[in-house]
Amino acid sequence: MKKLSLTALAIAICCALFSAPKITTGQINWQKFLEPHAFVWDSIRTDYYAGAIMGNGLLGANLYKNDENSYRFDVGRVDVTENRGRIASGYSRSHLLFDEARLPIGYFTLHPAGKVKSDSMRLSIYEAVATGVIVTDKGKINFKTYVHAQKNIILLETDSEGAETEFRWSWTPLRAVSPRLLVRGTDEIENSDYLKYPNPAVKEVIDGDYQMSVQPLYCGLTYAVAWKEVRSGSKRRIAITISQEDSETEAIAAAKQNVGECFSINDKALEKSHKKWWKEYYTASFATFTDKNLESFYWRQVYKLACATRPDKMIIDLQGPWAVQRTPWPAIWFNLNTQLTYSWEVTANRQAFTRPLWKALNENIENLHKNVVIPDASDAIGLGRSGSYGMFSVLNPRNADKNQYEVGNLTWILFYYWQYCTYTADNKELVDRFYPLLKAAVNYYFHIRTVGSDGKYHLPPTASPEYTSASSGGDVNYDLALLRWGLATLLEIDSRFALKDAKRADWQDFLGKLADYPTDEHGFRISATLGFDYSHRHYSHLLMIYPLYLVNWEQPENQNIIAESIRRWMSLPGALQGYSFTGSSSMYASTGDGERAVKQLQTLLAKYIQFNTLYKESGPVFETPMAAAASLQDLYIQSWGGKIRVFPAVPDSWKEAEFINFRTEGAFLVSAKRKDGKTSVIQVESEAGGLCRIQTGMDANNLKISNLKGKNTTFSVIENGVIEFETEKGGIYLIIAK
Fold it and tell me: CB of 413 within 8 A of CB of 338?
C-alpha cells in the first residue's frame, strides 16, 4: 500500500481551500427546498389513498372526499388493538389477526350547507399542515388542519363565508372488530373465542362542551374519542383526541384533559410549536435527486416516518396511524414488511425512530421464547409470520407443508438491529442487548439442523416466504443466507470484544460445514429441491445478494450468478408487486447499474404508488414506500464489508447529486457532492474515531484530505479510488481531488 502524507505546504493549501465551515444541513434553505414537494390537490378526491395524511406517531388523520357533497376525516390511534393477550384466564388466543388486531376508530364528516362547486387542498410536508378551500353555491369554507407534533391533539380550524358558517360536523364510530373479519368473514375463525366474546357497544357521552365516543373492549381497556368546538364569528375551531386507558372513567378523564389543554394554549402558539418540531426534524440529513419525482417521493417518506412513529412510540404496523375499516392486514408482518419498513432510517441519520422495534424485542423476550414450540429448545427464540406489539407469533414446524414455517424472520429483523448498533458505534447496545438476541435466534437452527452424507449441515423443510403454498423443501436459501450471516456476525462480535463465548467453536463448526446455497442454471434456487420456476414477488431466495451482501459484485467469481439470479427473477413478472421493484433496484445498485436501479423505482411510482404515496395490496401496506427510500440511498451510499462506497450507482445521466449526513458503519456521517458527473468533495465526520475505508470515486493518487481541526492527515491507497485513514473521535475530514 502506498503511504501519502500531507506536507506543510499541502496543509496550508487545504486550509485555504477549506476555510469555510463544515458541510451541514444548516446551510439548506429548508422551506425553499421542501415546499415544492408538498401534496397538492386541484380537486379533492374520494379516495383514502389520495387523502391528506397526517400524524404524530400516535394519532393519525386522513382527510379526503366522502361523496360529491361531504368530506371524510378519518382518525386513528396506533396502539388501539384487541389486545386480548392481556387477559389472564378464561380466554384462549386462537388467531392473532383477530385476537390482537389493530382496530379502526371512526371518522368525522364535514357536511357543507350548500352544493359543492369546487374544492382544493395542499399538504405542506415542511410544516405538516393541510389547508384548503371548499366553494359551494351558498358560500365558502377555508380550512386548516394538523395533528400536533408533540401533543395528542388533532386540530381543524375553519373560516367560512355566507351560509357555510353553519356547515355540519358529525361523528361516525366504526365497529370495534378486526378489519380482517369484514374482508375474510367468519370461516377463518369459526368456533373461536373471538366470535364468542364480542366487544361491548360504543357509548355516546356529552359532558358540557365535550362530546365523546367511548368504546369499552373485551380485554378490559377503553378508548375514547373526544372533541370540542369553539366558535368566534365566522371561525370555528375543533380539537379532537383519542385516549386509551384501563377504565372508562380514566379514558374520559384523559381525553378531556388533552382537549382542555389545547384550548388553554393560544392557538398561534400551539401551531408555532407544532411547526417548530417539524422544521427541526428534517435537518438530520439531506439529499437531492436529479429526478424530481423521485426526490419528492423520498422526502414524503421522511415526512410519513415521523407521522407513523417516534422514538418513544410504537412499532410501525402495516397501516401506520391511518387505520381502515376493511383490510386483511390489521397487524405487524415479520416476513418482509417490518424489515423493509426499518431498512433506511439509520442511513438517513434518523436511527432514533427505529428504537421502538428494538425495545419491543428486548422487552418481549419471554414471548420470543414462547414462539418456539420444538422440544428441548429453551435456549432459542423465534418469530412467526404476523402478530402485534408483544412479539407473540408462534413459529410452528407444522406449517412447513404450507410454506409458512418462516424460521429466518427474526434473524432478518436482527440484521437491521445490527445496523443500528454498528452505524452508531453503540457497543454497549451491541454486546448487552443485540448479541444475546442473535445468539438465541441462531440457537434455533442448532435444534433443527441435520448432518448429510456429505458431512455438511443441512436444514429441514422451512419456508421461503410467499413463494408457494406447498413445502419449499430443505436447505431453503432464505434460511441459509440469514444463518450464514448470523453465525459470521456472532463470531465477529466474540472476537472483537474478546468475549470468549463457550459456543464459539460450535459457531465456527456450523459455519464451516453449512450447506452451500442451492443453485442451477438460473442462479439461486428457492431450496435444494425447488427451483425458481414461477413468478415470486418476494426476494426471500436472494437475501445473500441484498441486503446481506454475502454474495456481491466485488467478488468477480459471483458476478454471473448475481446477474442471472436477478434476470430470472424479473423475467417472470406475473406475481411481482411494488417491493419487487425496490428489491431489484437495490440489487442493480449493488452491481453499479444506476440506470436500471432508477428505472425500477420509476416503474414502482408509475404502477404501484398511490397519490399520497401510500401503497396497497388488498389494503394499506406501509413497507414498500419505505423500502424505496432505502433504494434511493443505495444510489448514493453503500456501507458494508468494512467499506463505505460513495456514489456507487448514480446514473450517468445524473450529472449533479448531493447528500449530507448519511450514516455508515463505524458511526461516520458522510456528505458528498457530485458535479459535472464527477465526485467533487466528500466530508467524513467521525463520531467514534477509528479506521475509515472509503471508495471515493476519485483518483486515489490525486487526492487531498484536510482535517478541519487543522491536524496533519495521512491516508493509504488500497486500490484506485479506495483509501483508508485513521480518524479521531469528533474529527471532520474533507476529501477533494487535486
Answer: yes
Q: Give CA angle at 278 (275, 282), nearest 5°.
A: 145
Whether 13 and 139 map to the same domain: the answer is no
d(CA 646, CA 661) in angstroms, rounded, equals 12
Strand partners, 145: 130, 156
| pLDDT at site 200 | 97
Task: Give residue 20's pLDDT.
Answer: 43
Tell me how far CA of residue 534 lies from CA of 259, 374, 571, 575, in angstroms.
55, 32, 10, 9
- H-type alpha helices, 139-234: 179-184, 193-196
The confidence score (pLDDT) of residue 4 equals 37
Q: pLDDT value at position 570?
A: 97
Domain end call among 641, 672, 706: 641
Do residues 168 and 111 lie in contact, with contact meaning Cβ atoms separated by under 8 Å?
yes
Among the listed residues 245, 215, 247, 55, the one whose alpha carbon sits nearest the alpha carbon of residue 149: 55
Q: How many domains does the chain have?
A: 3
Q: Which three cell numbers stand for residue 700?
A: 486515489
Q: Judge whether 313 and 58 are in contact, CB under 8 Å.
A: yes
Of 253, 284, 315, which residue is a domain's last? 284
Residues of the chain with pLDDT under 70: 1-21, 712
Pair 111, 105: CB distance under 8 Å:
no
Phi-psi bin for 304: left (phi > 0), alpha (psi -120 to 50), beta? alpha
Check: CB of residue 152 under 8 Å from CB of residue 258: yes
Residue 388 in any domain: the answer is yes
Residue type (1 letter), 628: A
Check if the beta carbon of residue 425 is closer than 8 Å to that of residue 688: yes
Same domain, 86 and 137: yes
Q: What is the separation of C-alpha 696 from the centre of its chain, rounded to a whole number of angstroms? A: 28
What Å distances lie between residue 72 and 49, 50, 59, 173, 508, CA to CA? 13, 12, 16, 12, 59
Residue 352's CATH number: 1.50.10.10
Q: How many whole angstroms separate alpha carbon 291 and alpha carbon 287?
A: 12
Q: Confirm if 652 and 594 have CB atoms less than 8 A apart.
A: yes
**Amino acid identity for residue 151 in this structure:** K
Taking alpha carbons only, the member of 478, 477, 476, 411 closest to residue 441 is: 411
- CATH number, position 659: 2.60.40.1180
Give the domain range for residue 197. 38-284
Which grid cell is 439?
445468539
Statement to judge: residues 290 and 221 lie in one domain: no
Kindly give the residue spans of alpha helices, DSSP state H, lying in 464-593: 477-496, 504-513, 559-571, 578-590
Write out pLDDT tens, residues 451-488: 999 999 999 999 999 898 899 999 999 999 999 999 99
DSSP state letter for 691: E
Per DSSP, the chain holds a count of helices (H) and strands (E) of 20, 32
The DSSP bridge partners found for residue 142 are 133, 159
* Cα–Cα distance, 414 to 407 (Å, whole number): 13
Look-up of cell digits 460513495: 646
Considering the domain architecture, whether residues 109 and 175 belong to the same structural domain is answered as yes
Beta strands in 174-221 (DSSP E): 203-207, 210-216
679/549 same-domain check: no
The rounded distance, in Å, linking the Cα atoms of 454 and 34 is 59
Phi, psi of 103 (to 5 degrees): -105, 140
Query: Do 96 and 49 belong to one domain?
Result: yes
| Residue 616 domain flag | yes
The most distant pair of C-alpha atoms in the chain lies apart, rounded to whole Å, by 86
Contacts made by residues 497-506, CB under 8 angstroms, sequence distance 24+: 497/427, 497/431, 499/431, 499/435, 501/439, 503/439, 506/446
Neighbours of 236 (CB within 10 A): 20
| Angstrom distance (rounded) from CA 298 to CA 291 | 11
Same domain membership, residue 463 and residue 533: yes
- Tell me if 32 is assigned to some domain: no
Distance between alpha carbon 452 and the CA centroid of its chain, in Å?
A: 39
Query: What is the reported pTM?
Result: 0.96
- Asked whether residue 33 is domain-assigned, the answer is no
| 160 and 185 share one domain | yes
| Chain position carrying cell 429441491 | 529
